[in-house]
Amino acid sequence: MNTVLFLAHTECDGTLHKSALEALTAATALAGGLGHTLVVGIIGAEVTAAADSVAQCGARIYGVSGPAFADGRYASDLAAAEAVAKACDAQIVVAPATSRFSRALPGLAVRLGGRVDTHLSGLEAADGQPVARRWFYRQRMEGTLTRSERPWVLTLDSGCAEPFSGAGKAEVEALAVDVATRTTVSGLECPSADQQTIRPDARVLLVAGAGWTKKQADGAVHVDAAEETILTFLNATKSSLGSSKSLVDISGEGHAVISFLTHMHQVGQTGSSPRHAKGLATCCHGEEPHVVGWRFIGERRAINTDAGCGWAQGKCDVLYVGDAFAVMKKVNELLG
Amino acid sequence: MSELHIVVCGSIVPDPLQTLAPTEGPSGWALKNEMMLPAVLDPWAGHALFEAAALAKANPGSRVWLVSLAPKAKLQQVMMSVSQKAPFELVVADGPASGFTDSFETARVLAESIKGIAGLDTGKLLLFGGWQSASRGSGAVMQMVGEILGVTEQFQGVDKLAVRDDGSMEVKERIEGGAYQISVVSGAPAVFGWATGELPEPPNNPQTGMQNMQKNMPALMQAKPADLSGSGLRLSEVAVPQQRRETRVVKDVPVDDMAREIVEWLKA
After folding, report:
1. Which residues of chain A does CATH 3.40.50.1220 include?
2. Is residue B17 part of a domain?
3. Which chain A residue has the Cα nearest residue B201?
């Protein structure tokens, strides 16, 4: 019987990330729909707790564990994934599109003589075949695809399935894997709790547009006031902070800039497409790439001085026509 | 410091300000009026190229190649501006730059092109590219090129690469939650899929442009057609989401009322 392999890696605390549990739901449904056997492979320093957390999926579970697999590293993750895939003769491999697996699993397709499709937005069985959906041109159009090649390695983006739930006592078959690598992971550089950035778990995304750095009604720029207003809001709400590319890039044009904005905040065509329940856009204007930054935001509101703004019309639920400096200052007062 | 042979993989994409629409033709899915759309160097590949040029400048004796799979007529137009940004030697595979092209086939063609570079020392190889593209955005091509070439030290979402005196390199890779993973690799060869890096886009230098195009025009003229037909990938449907929201416009309302409504919405 053919095999669908679900691959996951553990987090620092030995658990599985929510995106891994979502991918397991998709893999379970795919295996059921195709009539294939589901096998689970878990990679990490210690995999017992992670295996227990998915024990009720009913699959045979392989584990590759040890200090060499604690950190995300191409050579070690790929060696582990290759060992599991070959142990169960996987025809289809489903994994979460985490940074760790996005780095390593395309190489798995080459080693297995198969193909890879990444960042899927959907996966299902139709007419006995696996059918995937993904975005093209940076979330501007969505396509449905199939493949004849096997093994087929698939990574699923987060937020596209319900997380699997079903803990128990799992039996893990340990695989021994030798790792040859010249790379050492020396640590992480994490933003502090107060540092503003894209926070995956935040409910709200605040998008700061270039208008914050432009001349205001008095003919002067007020970047200091803009920075204070934005930071006060972010500290009060713990929202994600996103920025248009123009605002990040204008430093190269000699314009005033908001000091804490970097390319890490960019949303849209050349940045990220974050997923948050709510989004509030301020001082943005309407260009095609911005649509991409909004794609996966649930409820959307915008503050802009232009009632006909293309960024807002048809794309957000409510457009407040007003001065974002004044409105956000009052919002901050009300938030306390 | 050591001599480095830096190969940058990068193709062209439609100008991000263009409105894109898919269309199905006899050879599969493509963009409507694709050949008419103005093109630019893929943004992340551009960052990789600028980082490569800076690294080569800091390590005398180093060389930079830009390997591109793209329609050569469109690529030539883009190179007129890109060539003014940094010195490099162009290697061209004449083929589609479409986002609907199979990532493995793209990787295979790029790897074959790299194998054909005269004078490339794979012991000094740093393979650069964007960690994703603005077309297919698979984030998979660089890993596969590296794997085909036997390079198994790989990094993705790179924002910083520092070469030490002993030839080892410290790498900052983007991971989830705005954090970086810091790694050290003992030296070349290695693959680096760049995010934005930390360098600004270099200003145009017409002299660099002329020197580049003297070398690179022959590469464009002699580019051989790339065969990407070995894929079993089938796209049954491609569509632009048509969701349009009924926007409620709130204007001529006191600031206090707007702010109160926003706060109620945020807290709901």
Report:
1. 204-335
2. yes
3. A252
Residue B149 lies in a domain: yes
Q: Which residues of chain B lie closer than 8 angstroms to A280, CB-CB?
A: 262, 266
Answer whether B263 sits within 8 Å of A334, measured CB to CB. yes
Class of domain A204-335: alpha beta
Please report residues of B whose CB lies closer than 8 A to that of A142: 238-239, 241
Answer yes or no: do A323 and B19 touch at CB < 8 A: no
A:B CB pairs within 8 Å: 278
Q: Is residue B16 part of a domain?
A: yes
* Within a domain: B30: yes
* Total of domains in chain B: 1
Pairing type for strands B180-185 and B248-250 reads unpaired
> Using 50, 70 and 90 to split pLDDT, how confident is the model at A193?
low
Contact between chains at A146 and B236 (C-beta distance less than 8 A): yes
How far apart are alpha carbons A119 and A130 in whole angstroms? 15
The ipTM is: 0.95
Give the pLDDT mean for B160-181. Answer: 93
Residue A182, Cβ density class (10 Å: 0-12 exposed, 13-18 middle, ≥19 buried): middle
Q: Give the torsion sign (CA, B47, B52, B53, B57).
A: positive
pLDDT tens by residue, A223-251 = 999 999 999 999 899 898 888 766 666 65
A263–B196 CB contact, under 8 Å: yes
pLDDT for A253 equals 58
Domain spanning A3-174 has what CATH number?
A: 3.40.50.620
Q: In which domain, by residue range, is B53 found?
A: 5-225
**Contact in structure between A112 and A92 (CB atoms under 8 Å):** no
pLDDT tens figures, B27-58: 899 999 999 999 999 999 999 999 999 999 99
